Structure formats: C-alpha cells, structure tokens
C-alpha cells in the first residue's frame, strides 16, 4: 500500500478546497470499495479527504412529493427508512439484494453510485486493462468474461457496473445532486453513468472534484407493482449476473406506465425507452412481456463465456414483469436481518 495524507473535511467548502489543492486526492465515505482498491494498488490517491462528517446524512421529503437522500446515508438506513419501505419498496429491495448487512451498514449512497467495476482484470495490476491504465488493452475481451457486459460494450472495455441500488434508481428516474468548483447541478440518473466507448477510465459524467450531495427520488414510487430480481452465483454476498428492476402502474389488466432496468449486463444500468413504450397501453400478459424483453435485449452481444446471459436476462425480465403485475415482488432472503 502506498503512503497517503489524510484530511478530515470540516464542511463541503473545505472538502472542495482540499480537493482543488491536491489533484490526486480522493474523497472517502464508507471506504468499502476505495480501501480495497488501494490495497490492491489499483487506486493510488495522494490524499484521502474524509467526508463522513459532512452534513449529508438526512432523508427528507421534498415539496414536490419526492424524497431527498443525503449522499452519506448508509445503504442500511436507506433500505429500512419507513418512507422508502412504504413508498419506494423497489429501492429497498434492490439495496437489500446487495453485499452483506455489515457492508450495507458502512456503504454510503454516494459511494454506491461511484463503486467501480468488479472485472477481475481491473483488480489484477499484472494484466492489461484500459479502465485502469488507458491504452494498455482489455484482458477480458479474449479472456474470462463470464461476468461481463452483453450490452453497450466497446472494443476498449466490456465491464459491467456492479451496483444493485443504481438499477432501482435508474428505473425510478432519480436525480443526482452534485456540487463542485462550477457550483451546484443536478444530473438525471440516465446521464450519470457512462458507456465505456473509447474512454473506459471514466465511469460517470461527474466533473473533477465534484461531490455528490444527494439523490432525489420523484413522487412516483410504484409501491404496488414492482420487483427487483437478482440472479447470481450465490444467494448472498455476490454480484449480479443479471438483475431486473421493474415497476408497473396498472389499470385493470392494462399497463398504464412501466419502468424496466437491467443490472449486471452493461457499464451502466440498462434502460431502453422502446421497451417501456411497448408495455404501455398493452395487456399485462406473457406476450407483452416477451416483446418488451426482446426489445430491451435487441442489441445484446455475448462473448466467449457470457452469451448465456442473453437468454438468462430474457427469462428474468419476463419473470420480474409477471411478478410485478401480480403484485408479488421477489422477496430478498436477508430482508429481516437488521
Ligand atoms: C465483498 C463485497 C460485496 C459487495 N456486494 C455488492 C453487491 O452485491 N451489490 C452492490 O450494489 N454492491 C456491492 N458491494 C459494493 C458496495 O455496495 C460498495 O462498496 C459501496 O456502496 C461503496 O460505498 P462507500 O461509501 O463504501 O464508498 P467508498 O469506498 O468510500 O468510495 C467509493 C468511491 O466513491 C467516491 N465517493 C464516495 N462518496 C462520494 C461523494 N459523496 N461524492 C463524490 N465521491 C464520493 C470515493 O472517492 C471512491 O472513489 C460489495 C462490496 C464488497 C466489498
Ligand atoms: S473489461 Fe474493462 S475493466 Fe475489464 S479488463 Fe477490459 S478494460 Fe479493464
């Protein structure tokens, strides 16, 4: 592990000032991803700016009827918050499908958005990786790529974004509030994460030294008809091979509104307006769900070890949509462990 300096930020302005003075500094929140990356020599910050004492731990209802979640709210507190449990159960369900209870107690809302890929080669500094070292090559394309992306890939990188929470936030159309040297701004969730293209080292559209201050949920929470379905190698403590966040608004047996996002298949949570449009106004049945699944996966392309994900995703989408339509969401096994 390298030597680094440590600063405990006394406020947001102080954190931004320290970051501006030290271009290789990194903010640290729960540390559950960053510390691992430093131990593996993947991240080499010259300074850690501890932001855990900043006033970003609140969860407040907004005047528009939505919810504003501070960037430092731990994943556990968010999943068990009464308003999230009752009005945004898709989000609670996705969070509880991730990591372990101990990790969720430490992991922050902002850190979850910015966690880095779990591509094994990204963590192995003995191998080429364009995300870790731009221009060095991608070891996964011709290597072991069972966990990797089937949508939105590039010749430079086929990594996936590992978060469960982000898949639900994409489906719910959250906004990310940030502040930085250029002032405050809000980023639509769909625009927050990037596809790899030829700059896979960039995971998001955050500007240098910007801090995430909050995530805002709109009023519509889809509390009746939703499901987060996560398929993985183990039932706990494993990242998704494929996950589906789906939310429906039904009128009789007809879909009035629909959201559909996939995790574990791309460099960002994967949505497609065409797939959701194909659900709206249609009968909530297997034919409709199959059509939406085909549309969402129409550009999917498998590599040597992960082509199975295409059919797995198709079946997962159909199952998640039918569970959501019946109002029987996937239960997360560790939901009751607090
Ligand atoms: C064994 C293991 C299993 C896991 N399984 C899952 C899983 O199944 N599903 C899942 O979704 N996640 C899983 N995780 C990931 C975990 O959820 C993330 O590590 C966690 O959410 C990161 O949050 P943190 O606060 O610890 O971030 P940190 O490690 O503190 O930071 C991560 C990154 O975010 C930056 N950062 C943090 N907060 C801010 C902010 N407010 N503004 C700007 N930059 C910021 C840091 O500089 C750093 O680059 C797992 C982790 C481990 C170790
Ligand atoms: S898939 Fe991306 S992260 Fe993985 S080795 Fe290739 S460039 Fe690196």
Give the H and E element order: EHEHEEEHHHHHHHEEHEEEEHHH
- Binned, the helix content reads 25-40%
Spatial gap, N to C terminus = 33 Å
Provide the list of bound ligands, each named once. flavin-adenine dinucleotide, iron/sulfur cluster
Structural class: alpha+beta
The quaternary state of the protein chains shown equals: single chain
What is Rg? Answer: 20 Å
Structure annotation, total helices: 13
Structure in words:
This protein has 338 residues and is of the alpha+beta class. Helices cover 29% and strands 19% of the residues. The protein has helices spanning 12-21, 34-39, 75-79, 82-87, 89-96, 101-106, 109-114, 120-123, 165-171, 189-192, 273-279, 286-296, 308-326, and strands spanning 5-8, 25-28, 47-50, 59-61, 67-70, 175-180, 183-188, 211-217, 225-231, 242-251, 254-263. The strands form 3 sheets. Strands 4-5-8-6-7 form a 5-stranded antiparallel β-sheet. A 3-stranded parallel β-sheet has the order 1-3-2, covered by helices on one side. A 3-stranded antiparallel β-sheet has the order 9-10-11, with helices on both faces. A hairpin with a 5-residue loop joins strand 4 and strand 5. It starts with a strand and ends in a 12-residue tail after the last helix. The chain binds flavin-adenine dinucleotide and iron/sulfur cluster. Iron/sulfur cluster binds at residues 117, 119, 121-122, 129-131, 138-140, 157-159, 200.
């Amino acid at each position: 592990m390298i030597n680094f300096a440590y600063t405990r930020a006394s406020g947001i302005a102080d954190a931004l000032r320290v970051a501006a003075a030290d271009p290789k500094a990194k903010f640290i929140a729960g540390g559950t991803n960053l510390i691992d990356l430093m131990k593996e020599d993947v991240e080499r910050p010259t300074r850690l700016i501890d932001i855990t004492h900043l006033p970003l731990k609140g969860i407040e209802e907004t005047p528009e009827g939505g919810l504003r979640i501070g960037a430092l709210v731990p994943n556990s507190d968010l999943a068990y918050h009464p308003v999230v449990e009752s009005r945004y159960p898709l989000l609670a369900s996705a969070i509880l499908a991730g990591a372990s209870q101990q990790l969720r107690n430490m992991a922050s809302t902002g850190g979850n958005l910015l966690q880095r890929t779990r591509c094994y080669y990204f963590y192995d500094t003995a191998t080429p990786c364009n995300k870790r070292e731009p221009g060095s090559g991608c070891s996964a394309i011709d290597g072991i790529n069972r966990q990797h992306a089937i949508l939105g890939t590039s010749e430079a990188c086929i990594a996936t974004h590992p978060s469960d929470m982000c898949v639900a936030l994409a489906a719910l159309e959250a906004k990310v509030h940030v502040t930085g040297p250029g002032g405050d701004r809000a980023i639509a969730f769909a625009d927050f994460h990037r596809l790899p293209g030829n700059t896979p080292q960039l995971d998001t559209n955050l500007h240098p030294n910007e801090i995430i201050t909050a995530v805002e949920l709109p009023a519509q929470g889809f509390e009746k008809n939703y499901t987060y379905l996560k398929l993985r190698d183990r039932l706990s403590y494993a990242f998704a091979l494929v996950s589906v966040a789906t939310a429906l608004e039904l009128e009789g047996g007809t879909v009035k509104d629909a959201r559909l996002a996939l995790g574990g298949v791309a460099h960002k949570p994967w949505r497609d307006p065409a797939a959701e449009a194909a659900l709206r106004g249609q009968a909530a049945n297997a034919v409709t769900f199959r059509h939406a699944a085909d549309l969402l996966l129409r550009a999917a392309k498998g590599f040597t070890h992960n082509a199975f994900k295409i059919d797995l995703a198709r079946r997962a989408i159909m199952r998640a949509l039918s569970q959501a339509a019946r109002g029987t969401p996937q239960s997360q096994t560790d939901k009751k462990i607090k």
